[in-house]
């Protein structure tokens, strides 16, 4: 849980990206705030390596919407993986960003797909939880790989994957909420398609 640090000068001169830093790291409950609620503080000490540098801190390795789009583009342009991984747009968000859905399975020789059960995976419903995107990338690297186990899984199941449920929140830097200011993880039963399009369309896909 050590904070992550990125220095533009370190990246330019030594090709060093995000790195764990900090000493005397403490996370503790501080004084009582309004209405009797407690607030929490995260503190650490750190000495910046350069003067006149631009630096960033993060609690987990970042994974952006652009990272996802670039990753999906490499799959699309791969002559092998694109045969068993079809990338479509599930819906558009409030800000008109695309929510992608991947269908991963060995192409069927006939039209009867009912013998294969579906496995549905989603990630990044909370924008600040970037670790879920890295886990999803690891899963996709594996299931789209050339191992015999991955081949068997693709032969046996149809995988429906929504790698980023909340791209609006990711883009604007929210920690938990969508652009509507709501936690999508608490709105899977909502009928408000316009307010929560990604979870509405994901739920619809599961029903289908």
UniProtKB/TrEMBL annotation:
A GO molecular function held by the record: metallocarboxypeptidase activity
Superkingdom: Eukaryota
GO biological process terms held by the UniProt record: proteolysis
Domain Peptidase M14: 61-208
Cofactor (UniProt): Zn(2+)
Family: Belongs to the peptidase M14 family.
Name of protein: Peptidase M14 domain-containing protein
Native species: Ursus americanus (American black bear)
